[in-house]
Amino acid sequence: MKKQKLRIWIYVLLFLLGAALPILNMRTFDVKAIVTVVLLSLIGALIIGTVINILINLLSDQKETQEEK
After folding, report:
1. pLDDT tens-digit profile of 8-65?
2. CA distances to 17, 22, 55 from 25, in Å
3. Within 13 Å of residue 55, how many CA atoms lie on the same side as its CB?
4. Residues 20/27, Cβ–Cβ less than 8 Å
5. How many separate domains does the chain show?
């Protein structure tokens, strides 16, 4: 359960960073640009979050293997 919460927080933080920073830097309110930024940051968060989760799983599996030895 602890790993599940960590994964969710990783996705949320990556999405918020990816979406909030460009939107805050916009000088004018443009709906099309905001939708594009939100969609791209969602895709980026999913990709980067998946890679981070794979690395976490590999490290935890490696740690368990070392503890068994």
Report:
1. 888 888 888 888 878 778 788 788 888 888 888 888 888 888 888 888 888 888 877 7
2. 12, 5, 32
3. 8
4. no
5. 1
